[in-house]
Write the structure tokens for this entry.
Amino acid sequence: MNKYFIDHVDHAQAKLDRDLARIGDIDAHTRIFKRQERDLLQQRLERLEAREAVETAVRTLTDPAVQGDARPAPASPPSPAAAAVKRQYSAQSLAAWFVLRVHSWPQDAALPSEAEDLVAAKADFDTVPRGEFRTIRRLKTPERWRKPGPRPGR
């Protein structure tokens, strides 16, 4: 083989390597862009769902056909005077209560535990079945409210 042919093959191989690297970079950038776009869409969807959940919660709490007592759900346990009048429990009203509790919770306050949420719910509703409460809490609270941790007394 002559030197010209070997140089030409080396040049072609180097060009092919550069082109493949460039395609790999394009693929990497495309994956990053698609991931960022997916994350943005997910954030928009979460904001939309939160807005719809709040609107549904407000409708649920103020619609006399759904709820006999139309007063809004407090973010904290009611005062002793208000504790005498408890709302009738329904899964839908508890879900609405959770949505309002989450959205009205102070940003600088420590997040409540499941037990604290249950005490607050029992202070606001006449009865609260624990199984339904746990299911609704899991569905209606953000991930940071459900962080696993050590169980007290174990």
